[in-house]
Amino acid sequence: MHIELYDLAKDRFETTDVSARYPEVVSRLEKLMREQHTPSKDFPFPALDPLSNRAFRMRCLSRIPPQVVVEKPYDRVAQK
Prior knowledge:
By secondary structure, this protein is α+β, with helices and mostly antiparallel strands. The protein contains 2 helices and 2 strands. A two-stranded antiparallel sheet has the order 1-2.
């Protein structure tokens, strides 16, 4: 996971990622994100959730009723 860090006082349009200059801040942020994140099937965050993207999609697809056809992953779901 790559965490971007911006100096909003000097760069309010977030054009320059300063994460490489402040690795200690990035480490603290990553630690906080991991500690405070609660996995959710409704709002997945693949970078932090324990399931891989594919495993998560398969788990979600297994809950779709049989009359629903999934055309493409992350595409729309259409009724037959």
